[in-house]
Design brief:
- By secondary structure, the chain is α/β, with parallel strands linked by helices.
- It is about 40% helix and about 15% strand.
- The strands form two sheets. The chain has a five-stranded parallel sheet.
- Helix 2 crosses helix 13 (about 305-325), helix 5 packs across helix 6 and helix 7 packs across helix 13.
- It starts with a helix and ends with a helix.
Amino acid sequence: MTSSKMQGEMKAPEYAAGSLLTVAGLPVEEVAAILAATDRMERMAAADRARILAGRRIALLFYESSTRTRTSFELAAKSLGAMTTLVSDKSSSIEKGESLKDTGLTLRALGAECIVLRHANSGAPYLLAKLTGLPVLNAGDGMHEHPSQALLDLRTMLARLPGMSNRLLNAKTLEGVTVVITGDILHSRVARSNAMLLPRLGARVLLCGPAALLPVDALGLGAGVEIERDFDKALKQAQVVMMLRIQRERLAGLELDLADYISRYQLDQERLTSRAPEALVMHPGPMIRGLEISGEVADGPNSAIEDQVRHGLGVRTALLVRALGVGGFESVTA
């Protein structure tokens, strides 16, 4: 399913209000509302926050392994007072061959009011949302998108980049900011979502990597997206450097020399200090220390990697309220 077709479908009434399937059709004003809700709920007393979705039922449906995304959605739901159930492909009828449709309909029949879905197939959240009529939050679908990751990455940048924390969110908020995304762009749903969202806020997104991991058609992600094969040249232009995991499980059939990749594209301390000493360093995780990033950089003062995890909890709290809060989302953004 093409991105343009998905954008059109996102606006169709067959998807429940509150679904987040893609960042492509998400207005900047709605992004601002989500981040404002995140801010407001983080300032709330825990007891007040726990009443927002008290007794509501949220299903976490994960067909792929996850630590950060699954745990943050689960903790976010519980902090709002919601009840959660985790369904994985290793501990359910999915392992016996049950279809996504039947699993979704079963969860609905059991009282689930929202489904958080991670699936290996691009477009699966659209299918689930259409078949069940429930609000669906896309927690990563194949090589397509990871919308909540792009939102938490944005919030991390706004919190850490100089002069950004008090800016109103609009089409010029990130003007003058170059975000270099380096690594396995080909297979990265994180890269896609960030490349689709950040330029709409004024950022320049510079994709970097060898041709095997970064095809030229990545330029089709939208205006404001460029390709630079030379990592050192890209770093000299960066205010933000986002490193991506080299996904060994996806490298079958690709001609990639890992030693050469490390030499040309690893972010180590010497490279960071000499090319981009003030740049913010990010990584969606999981990291492979010693491959795409050195441990010294990952743990260093430029690193916002743990900040990303913390912001993920806040943003996903807001997304759950947006999905289920009848009037609740409006009240926390007011």
